């Protein structure tokens, strides 16, 4: 089935606009201007609809091709205010900084922790070797009831990796002037995580030569995810 059926713009333009939005801290209006500079006249509203429609499709394809996560999960939650109400964004990353899963919930009690851990196990396809969290009691409840044999580390500073992983989300949240609904936030964060993982090459850890090789592979994966 043609992914882009009944769209008058070529797939390369649509996928490029979606990539710009989820890869960089750009608004729909910014992307409209970037395309206009190339003589591609499209409204920011069309770009918004493209991102909403095609972003999740591309993310699902990227996840299917993902090589797998590490054996240690760093889990943390931060609050997000949406329409004046406080929500909690639960996030887990592995030892390489890859985002394993994100889930937006209204609570951070034991039931919410268990719900998130179930999502983690589904995303990972099994139990990790170790889970690192802060001392929130809800994590202990989920650990005891779902993965009691997994090592649970709650020592001070051990969870800094998970806390730092929220920074890209905070940057985008400010750029978008806060999320407008829980559905919009969950959709955006899920796609953003998949795109972030794809381009998370650890540039500071490898030589420029190897980085260019890896980047070419990444673009090939993106081309696969955005194919018709």
Briefly, what is this?
The protein is 52% helix and 15% strand.
How are the elements arranged and paired?
Blueprint: H1 11-23, H2 28-37, H3 44-65, E1 72-82, E2 85-94, E3 99-105, H4 110-124, E4 130-132, H5 137-146, E5 151-153, H6 160-164, H7 167-175, H8 182-198, H9 208-225
Parallel strand pairs: 1-4, 4-5
Antiparallel strand pairs: 1-2, 2-3
Helix pairs in contact: 1-3, 2-3, 3-8, 3-9, 4-5
What does this structure look like?
With 228 residues, the chain is an alpha/beta fold. The protein folds into 2 domains: 110 residues, no CATH class; 109 residues, Nucleotidyltransferase, domain 5 (2-Layer Sandwich), CATH 3.30.420. The protein is 52% helix and 15% strand. The protein contains 9 helices and 5 strands, in the order αααβββαβαβαααα. It has a 5-stranded mixed β-sheet with strand order 3-2-1-4-5, sandwiched between helices. α3 packs across α8 and α3 packs across α9. The longest helix is centred in the first third of the chain and has 22 residues.
